[in-house]
Design a protein that fits this description.
The protein is mostly helical and about 450 residues long. The chain has helices at about 10-15, 20-45, 45-55, 55-60, 65-80, 85-115, 120-125, 130-135, 165-180, 185-205, 220-235, 245-260, 265-280, 295-310, 320-345, 350-360, 370-390, 395-410, 415-425. The protein has 19 helices and no strands. Helix 2 (about 20-45) crosses helix 13, helix 2 packs parallel to helix 14 (about 295-310) and helix 6 (about 85-115) crosses helix 15. The chain is globular.
C-alpha cells in the first residue's frame, strides 16, 4: 500500500489507533432502525408496509441493509488481512455467526414454538415444518413453525430477518474465493471485477423487469455492498474522508432511492456514508460499549415483535410494538453477547493450533511443476470467478458449489508452493498498517 493521503481512511484509522466508537454506534443504530421498521409489518401486515416503503420513509430505509453489508465488508476485509490463512478466517466467521444463530433457532423451535403454537404439542413436533426450521442454522431459510403466529397481522412468519443470512454467508464464501484467486491482493482487478459483477446483475434485473422498487434491498445489492466495503478497505490509502462527499453521498443516495432502478447504484454512496460515520469517534456512553449487541438485536428482534403482536389488536400499533420490542430486544441481545457470542469468540485462541495441524495434513505434490500446476491454477481461478458471479446474479446453489470447488482445489493443491500462496491471502499474518481493529 502506498503512502496514504493525509485525509484518507488509512490516515484516520492511524490517528485513532484503529479503534473508533463510530462503528459501535452505527451498528446498534442500524439494528434498532430495522426493529423500528419491522414494527410496521408486525403491527399492520406486509401490504401496509409496502405502502410506507414507497413513501419518504422508504427512501431512508433503502440505506439500512446496504450499510450493514458495506460495514461488514469493510471490517471483515481487515480480519482477512490479519489471518494467516483462510482456515483461520472461516473459523473466526463461524465463531461469530453460528453460535447465536443456532441458539435463536433452537429456542424458537423447541421452547417458544410449542408455547405459542395453535397445534397440540404432539402435532407440532411431528410436523415437517418443525424439522425444516433447523436448516436455518446452515443458511437454508424457513420462516414457518407449525401453528405459530397464525393470527398475527404478518402470519406464519417467525423471523423474517433471517432472509439476509444466506447472503451474508455467500459474502464470506465469495471473499474466500476472491482471496484464493488473488484478487484481494490486486485491488485494481477487484475493482474491475466488482464493476463487471454489478453490470451483469443490473442487466439481468432489467431483463427480468425488476425496477428495484420492491420492499427492501435485494440480495445482489447486499453482495455488491459487501464488495464495495472490501474495496474501501483496500483503497483506504486513497479514499479521502470529506464532509462534502458525505453530504453528496447522502443526497445522491436519497435521489437514487426515489428513481426507478436507482437502488442498483446505492452500494457506493451507502458505503461512503458507512465508513465516514464509522470512523467518527464520539464519546463512548451507555451500556452498548460493554459488548456488540447489534447482532443479537438483529437476530432476536423480529421474533420478539411477533410475540408482542400475538397478544392481540390492542398492541397492533407500531409505537407500542417498538416501545416494547426495542428495550426487550436490547436486553436479550446483551444476554446473547455475554452468554453466547463473547464466550464463543473466546475460543478463537484455539484456532492457530488447529490451523497448524490442518496445514500440516496438506498432501504432498502429486505432479511436477508445469502443465499440472497450470491446470490446477486455471481450475481454481475459473471456479472462483464463476462462483462469485453466480452469487451476485442470485444463483445461490451454483455459486456455492463453484466456490466450494475453488476452495477444495486450493486446499488440495498439486504443489506446496501453490498452496502457501493461495491459503495465505494477505501474504502475511498480523495487522497491516492502517487496518481497522474490530471485535471478532
Amino acid at each position: 500500500m502506498s503512502d496514504p493521503h493525509p485525509r484518507s481512511i488509512a490516515a484516520r484509522i492511524a490517528a485513532t489507533g484503529g479503534r473508533t466508537s463510530g462503528f459501535d454506534y452505527l451498528r446498534i443504530g442500524l439494528a434498532v432502525s430495522i426493529v423500528l421498521w419491522h414494527s410496521i409489518s408486525t403491527s399492520y401486515g406486509s401490504a401496509f408496509e409496502l405502502v410506507i416503503w414507497r413513501g419518504p420513509l422508504g427512501l431512508v430505509m433503502h440505506f439500512v441493509l446496504p450499510m450493514f453489508f458495506a460495514l461488514s465488508g469493510f471490517l471483515v476485509a481487515g480480519s482477512l488481512d490479519r489471518c494467516a490463512s483462510l482456515i483461520s478466517f472461516f473459523a473466526l466467521r463461524a465463531l461469530r455467526i453460528v453460535p447465536a444463530l443456532a441458539v435463536e433457532i433452537t429456542l424458537s423451535a423447541l421452547v417458544f414454538g410449542p408455547m405459542l403454537s395453535r397445534l397440540p404439542v404432539a402435532a407440532y413436533f411431528a410436523a415437517p415444518e418443525f424439522r425444516a426450521y433447523f436448516l436455518n442454522i446452515v443458511g437454508d431459510i424457513h420462516y414457518l413453525l407449525p401453528g405459530v403466529f397464525a393470527a398475527n397481522p404478518l402470519p406464519h412468519t417467525v423471523n423474517a430477518q433471517l432472509w439476509t443470512v444466506p447472503f451474508e454467508l455467500q459474502c464470506y464464501a465469495a471473499l474466500g474465493a476472491l482471496a484464493v484467486v488473488g484478487l484481494v491482493r490486486r485491488r485494481r482487478w477487484l475493482l474491475a471485477f466488482t464493476l463487471l459483477a454489478q453490470a451483469l446483475w443490473i442487466a439481468q434485473a432489467l431483463k427480468l423487469g425488476d425496477d428495484g422498487s420492491s420492499n427492501g434491498a435485494s440480495g445482489p445489492v447486499l453482495v455488491i455492498s459487501f464488495l464495495v466495503g472490501l474495496l474501501f478497505h483496500l483503497y483506504r490509502d486513497r479514499i479521502v474522508l470529506a464532509r462534502r462527499w458525505f453530504w453528496l453521498s447522502l443526497v445522491g443516495g436519497l435521489a437514487l432511492s426515489a428513481l426507478p432502478h436507482g437502488a442498483y447504484y446505492l452500494p457506493l454512496p451507502a458505503c461512503y456514508l458507512t465508513v465516514w460515520l464509522g470512523l467518527c469517534d464520539p464519546p463512548k456512553r451507555g451500556f452498548i460499549f460493554r459488548g456488540d449487541y447489534s447482532y443479537g438485536l438483529y437476530l432476536f428482534g423480529f421474533p420478539i415483535q411477533q410475540v408482542v403482536a400475538s397478544f392481540g389488536p390492542a398492541l397492533h400499533h407500531w409505537y407500542l410494538n417498538a416501545a416494547i420490542a426495542v428495550p426487550v430486544g436490547l436486553s436479550v441481545a446483551a444476554l446473547s453477547w455475554h452468554l453466547i457470542e463473547k464466550p464463543a469468540l473466546a475460543q478463537r485462541r484455539r484456532i492457530p493450533a488447529l490451523e497448524r495441524r490442518l496445514l500440516a495434513l496438506r498432501p504432498r505434490a502429486l505432479l511436477p511443476a508445469g502443465l499440472g500446476a497450470l491446470a490446477s491454477g486455471a481450475a481454481i481461478v475459473a471456479s472462483g470467478m464463476i462462483g462469485v458471479l453466480a452469487l451476485v446474479d442470485a444463483h445461490e446453489r451454483l455459486g456455492l458449489l463453484a466456490i466450494l470447488t475453488c476452495l477444495v482445489l486450493a486446499a488440495l493443491p498439486l504443489r506446496p508452493a501453490v498452496a502457501a500462496a493461495l491459503l495465505q491471502p494477505s501474504g502475511r499474518g498480523g495487522r497491516p498498517v492502517g487496518s481497522f481493529k474490530d471485535r471478532g
